[in-house]
């Protein structure tokens, strides 16, 4: 396999290369037949919103074209990310959010032909290595009881199933934190791809790489 290079994109560069990133999204998640246009349009709409958030940052993986992407941004200080959290939110998490010290991994995806080669792991590490935050969070679609995952190798990134996402986060040293209800304000669900909006999310947290 040809060497894969990582690049960090500014907000402006991410907007300029949004079509290439959308191609990765459609290829990575491969929605139902005939749904590609809808899925692509929905992703581009979310990306347009996400790039406006404070601290937006993106890493892409390239080899004769873009084959992977990870991006995130600061969780808004107003706390809407946690508005549908099931249970009592710990005080320290509230304080980190209100102080602007929490970063959300909003999307991580690798096209099928390039999975299981450590690309997702490199993307996450590259995105977080220079991060000036005290907490990183991600939300995945909640696994069903029969979802066996199958991420393997610490690089399940964007395998397109909730189980694979959970396996990847465990392998990377993240901790399961709790559940968000189906109406999360920021429209996030790493590892789920196109699908119904009314699903609960599992929240995963970790401290940033230093």
Describe the protein in words.
By secondary structure, the chain is of the alpha+beta class. It contains six helices and seven strands. The protein has helices at 11-16, 18-29, 36-50, 91-98, 119-128, 162-171; strands at residues 5-9, 57-62, 66-74, 102-110, 135-141, 175-180, 201-206. A seven-stranded mixed beta sheet has the order 1-2-3-4-5-7-6, with helices on both faces. Strand 4 (102-110), helix 5 (119-128) and strand 5 (135-141) form a beta-alpha-beta unit. Helix 2 (18-29) crosses helix 3 (36-50). The radius of gyration is 16 Å and the shape is globular. It starts with a strand and ends with a strand. The relative contact order is 0.17. The model is unreliable at 145-154 and 189-196 (pLDDT under 50).
Overall mean pLDDT stands at 82
Percentage of residues in helical conformation: 25-40%
- The poorly predicted ranges are 145-154, 189-196
Strand content: 15-25%
DSSP strand tally: 7
Task: Count the DSSP helices.
Answer: 6
What structural keywords apply?
210 residues; alpha+beta; 7-stranded mixed β-sheet; 6 helices
List strands and helices in order, with pairings.
Elements: E1 5-9, H1 11-16, H2 18-29, H3 36-50, E2 57-62, E3 66-74, H4 91-98, E4 102-110, H5 119-128, E5 135-141, H6 162-171, E6 175-180, E7 201-206
Parallel strand pairs: 4-5
Antiparallel strand pairs: 1-2, 2-3, 3-4, 5-7, 6-7
Helix pairs in contact: 2-3
